[in-house]
């Protein structure tokens, strides 16, 4: 007879969570060991993939010695620049700070206003965050400290809150070209280091696919991509991503974005049709949260929603999801 498992006995895997909600929330010298201890395997029976979103997260991890400290074997760390913060990074070391920002920032407005906008940037340039050279900072030695790449991606609808505050105007965005250049930098690092990518794609589905297809055609080795909180259609996933030759694509589904009830028709269809070997679970929540968020119950809830829609046993589904994770990340 099958043993009915208590939820705490299930090994649950969060394939995409964060260190903190904002890049400047934790101090660079902050001791994050109590946070990591809280998530130890014997306390939580969880495996976590923790994303970094800016170089500040890297500084925190480095200062806490997490790369040489093997006590947290249930936590994998991902290296990345979230598209919301990619304006702080440059791939061109010859550019001045002013040129960099004028080159990559846009306002949702008429083109003739771009000149006025550039003047506004010039007037306030001292208040802008200093620009980090991506290639120098994220050299191969830094990348190789990590277990995978994430969070990276494209988000063509994101407004830059920090810059909007400095300039006192709304709807400041990063040019799609700059986002694409940064994403390409990390895709190339993933290919070189044989790393999986945990990818964000909002309002940029076609561009994401076009970039991946280009690499897919030029590549001879395998690249694995997990689309985090995938909100595209099942048709796009099957007819585009699954048709790529060397690129293996998966999706991690979150309670917050994908499985919030009532489920959309699109999401219901996606979950009913997607092959179970393609699914992972995620929370997308920062592990430093003090708002009483329960990672286990959120993941278990997501698991049960998917199992119910697919009309399968959730323990069996979890077994498959954990197998997927091991196949993808090891
Ligand atoms: Zn995320």
Automatic annotation (TrEMBL):
<dbReference type="GO" id="GO:0016788">
    <property type="term" value="F:hydrolase activity, acting on ester bonds"/>
</dbReference>
<keyword id="KW-0378">Hydrolase</keyword>
<feature type="binding site">
    <location>
        <position position="228"/>
    </location>
    <ligand>
        <name>a divalent metal cation 2</name>
    </ligand>
</feature>
<feature type="binding site">
    <location>
        <position position="200"/>
    </location>
    <ligand>
        <name>a divalent metal cation 2</name>
    </ligand>
</feature>
<dbReference type="InterPro" id="IPR001130">
    <property type="entry name" value="TatD-like"/>
</dbReference>
<feature type="binding site">
    <location>
        <position position="16"/>
    </location>
    <ligand>
        <name>a divalent metal cation 1</name>
    </ligand>
</feature>
<protein>
    <submittedName>
        <fullName>Metallo-dependent hydrolase</fullName>
    </submittedName>
</protein>
<dbReference type="InterPro" id="IPR032466">
    <property type="entry name" value="Metal_Hydrolase"/>
</dbReference>
<dbReference type="Pfam" id="PF01026">
    <property type="entry name" value="TatD_DNase"/>
</dbReference>
<feature type="binding site">
    <location>
        <position position="151"/>
    </location>
    <ligand>
        <name>a divalent metal cation 1</name>
    </ligand>
</feature>
<feature type="binding site">
    <location>
        <position position="18"/>
    </location>
    <ligand>
        <name>a divalent metal cation 1</name>
    </ligand>
</feature>
<dbReference type="InterPro" id="IPR053044">
    <property type="entry name" value="Metallo-hydrolase/TatD-type"/>
</dbReference>
<dbReference type="InterPro" id="IPR018228">
    <property type="entry name" value="DNase_TatD-rel_CS"/>
</dbReference>
<feature type="binding site">
    <location>
        <position position="284"/>
    </location>
    <ligand>
        <name>a divalent metal cation 1</name>
    </ligand>
</feature>
<keyword id="KW-0479">Metal-binding</keyword>
<dbReference type="GO" id="GO:0046872">
    <property type="term" value="F:metal ion binding"/>
</dbReference>
């Amino acid at each position: 007879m099958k043993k009915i498992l208590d939820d705490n006995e299930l090994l649950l895997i969060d394939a995409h969570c964060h260190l903190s909600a904002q890049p400047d929330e934790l101090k660079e010298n902050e001791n994050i060991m109590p946070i990591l201890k809280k998530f130890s395997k014997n306390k939580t029976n969880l495996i976590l993939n923790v994303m970094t979103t800016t170089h500040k997260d890297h500084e925190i991890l480095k200062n806490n010695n997490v790369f040489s400290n093997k006590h947290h074997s249930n936590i994998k760390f991902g290296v990345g620049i979230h598209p919301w913060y990619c304006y702080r990074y440059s791939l061109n070391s010859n550019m001045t700070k002013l040129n960099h920002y004028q080159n990559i920032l846009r306002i949702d407005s008429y083109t003739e206003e771009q000149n006025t906008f550039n003047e506004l940037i010039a007037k306030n340039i001292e208040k802008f965050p200093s620009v980090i050279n991506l290639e120098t900072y994220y050299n191969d030695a830094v990348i190789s400290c990590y277990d995978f790449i994430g969070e990276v991606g494209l988000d063509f609808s994101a407004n830059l809150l920090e810059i909007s505050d400095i300039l006192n105007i709304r709807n400041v965005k990063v040019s799609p070209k700059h986002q694409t250049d940064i994403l390409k930098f990390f895709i190339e690092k993933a290919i070189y280091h044989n790393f999986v990518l945990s990818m964000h794609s909002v309002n940029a589905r076609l561009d994401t696919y076009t970039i991946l297809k280009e690499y897919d055609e030029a590549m001879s080795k395998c690249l694995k991509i997990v689309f985090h909180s995938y909100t595209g259609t099942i048709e796009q996933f099957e007819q585009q991503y699954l048709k790529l030759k060397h690129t293996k694509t998966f999706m991690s589904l979150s309670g917050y974005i994908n499985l919030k009830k009532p489920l959309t028709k699109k999401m219901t269809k996606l979950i009913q049709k997607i092959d179970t070997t393609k699914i992972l679970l995620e929370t997308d929540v920062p592990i430093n949260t003090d708002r009483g968020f329960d990672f286990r119950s959120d993941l278990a809830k997501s698991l049960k929603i998917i199992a119910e829609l697919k009309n399968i046993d959730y323990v069996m589904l979890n077994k498959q999801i954990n197998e997927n994770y091991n196949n993808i990340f090891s």
